[in-house]
Amino acid sequence: MTQQPPPPDLPFEQPPERQYAVQLHAEGVGTLLGAIAWVMGALAIMRDRGHAEGDEELHELQESLEPRLETLLNDLAMARAAVEGGGETELGERVEAAYTRVREAFERWIQLTAVDTASVAIGQRLAEIAEEAEDDEADEA
């Protein structure tokens, strides 16, 4: 039976149960770091959009997930330090290269979604302007 995570409104604490052991190669660590950073970045964007739209649910979602993601980042940082010894190594360079590939994909995703968001906003505004013009024509007639 798998243990369910606590509901989002409860503070996150690492359970005292037996830990999983995952062995990742350097590229896997970098990719995982990038994926976590991607999710954290997306949550921050959602939080900011929620603030702009007065939707606190998105802020609460970010607040409930971020501690879990930060715990994963800390675990990965400790694992890296144990393997790499804190200095620049070939392994560390491979981790950074894999992370950079994911980060660059995230930056591209941000650009694409920004264009989509702008297109939708412009389309909505043009529809409003057209509707206002039709209303003005109807009032003049």
What do these coordinates show?
The chain has one domain (26-140). It is 77% helix and 0% strand. The mean pLDDT is 85. The protein is an all-alpha fold. The chain contains three helices and no strands.
Task: Please summarize what this structure is.
The protein is mainly alpha-helical and 141 residues long. It has one domain.
Kindly list the characteristics that best describe this protein.
elongated, 141 residues, mainly alpha
Question: Mean pLDDT across all residues, rounded?
Answer: 85
Spans where pLDDT lies below 50 across 5 or more residues? none
Q: Tell me about the biggest sheet?
A: none
- The total count of helices amounts to 3
- The proportion of strand residues reads under 5%
Q: Please tell me what the overall shape is.
A: elongated
Instruction: Give the % helix.
Output: over 70%
Number of domains: 1
State the end-to-end distance.
71 Å
Structural class: mainly alpha
Rg, rounded, reads: 22 Å
Task: Write the topology of this structure.
Elements (H helix, E strand, L loop, with lengths): L25 H28 L2 H29 L5 H51 L1
Helix pairs in contact: 1-2, 1-3
